[in-house]
Amino acid sequence: MAAAQRPLPARVAAAQRLARGCWSAFWDYETPKVIVVRNRRLGAVYRTVQLLILLYFVWCAAGLATLSHRYVFIVQKSYQDSETGPESSIITKVKGITTSEHKVWDVEEYVKPPEGGSVFSIITRIEVTPSQTLGTCPESMRVHTCHSDDDCIAGELDMLGNGLRTGHCVPYYYGAFKTCEVSAWCPVEDGASVSQFLGKMAPNFTILIKNSIHYPKFKFSKGNIASQKNDYLKRCTFDSDFDPYCPIFRLGFIVEQAGENFEELAHKGGVIGVIINWDCDLDLSESECNPKYSFRRLDPKHVPASSGYNFRFAKYYKINGTTTRTLIKAYGIRIDVIVHGQAGKFSLIPTIINLATALTSIGVGSFLCDWILLTFMNKNKVYSHKKFDKVCTPRHPSYSWPVTLALVLGQLWLFKPHGLAPSEQMADTFNQHVRQRPPQQDSTPMDPEGLAQL
């Protein structure tokens, strides 16, 4: 006689039941059930949430539209296809004359580089070290000081210095200090530099900024110069209200619009950004797409270690066959012209996508109200009992499926027998099936515990 089969351990049996339950639940189908709850406070919450969502997608509060990104149909124009970052070209030209203590300066001398690109510098102050020749001389006192030759190692090179050390400790150009002797362009910069200020006439310099943009997606191009006569640019100056298509700016106007003091900026140097913004709604006429200018300082003026702007260059020549140069440390105002923008035009695809997103988001109101009902309402158990029903289909096939299929598909002609009308045959089949089914009791009462009072 076969031995009795040993029962499975409790954990294994529980795991099997869980696996069967998960596998059975995988094939379940969920369909929404509509329940009307007559509660004014809950209804007010539901309609308020719906209204806020609609306002969000149709229009946005003015504060949000100005302080941050604009998120909505009318303000952001979500019904449009958009393109950011236009293709852009920039040509600049500076005009003006200024003077220092002993010299007149023209554009060729105080504008660097002279090509007229989107980034250029206007020199406003210089420190000149004239007549430098290759030889040996004391190093700058800011690099290193010494007391004897032992402090200066021959052949040593300091990356912050001006040349190669010779191994001698020599007196500085002036004073009682000593520095290491170096082989370099002599005298070094700190030893004989002379400062000259060029900013006296600089506020009256004029800057022409010629800009043209192109949005390839929409095949749209435009420039920032008005279609006027040839002498138009000789007599116009930019004015945001009366002459927005004259791209000629005074340097003093740019610095003032950036909120800076010209005298201080000219002495220490700095970087000013000229931002040109092309935001174009191409559903409107071309005349509505206009450049908007803004100005601001780009270098951190409140950080002493990184504020200001300067650079060096040299001019070379020969005296009695000896190569000589003049070293110039230039302080100035650097202008960075920055172009950005966005163009938009109506397109059906983004319109459909954003409409679908808006309609889907309205369902947040139902989710919030369901959460309130199931969590905080006094009759939350009654609501849960009515909201969630579980219907199990019989394992054996029912004879009512032809009727159900006919009702769903509307194919009533399948039941048309010998001269009997389709509606009569379906009704007869349905009534016969109902008579064969045993009566079933509804699992839930009609109004359990005062559902109508929710």
TrEMBL record:
Keywords: ATP-binding, Cell membrane, Disulfide bond, Glycoprotein, Ion channel, Ion transport, Ligand-gated ion channel, Membrane, Nucleotide-binding, Receptor, Transmembrane, Transmembrane helix, Transport
Polar residues bias (residue ranges): 434-444
CC per GO annotation: apical plasma membrane; neuronal dense core vesicle; postsynapse; receptor complex
Membrane topology: Multi-pass membrane protein
Protein known as: P2X purinoceptor
Disulfide bond entries: 137-186, 146-169, 152-180, 236-246, 280-289
InterPro entries: P2X2_purnocptor, P2X_extracellular_dom_sf, P2X_purnocptor, P2X_receptor, P2X_RECEPTOR_CS
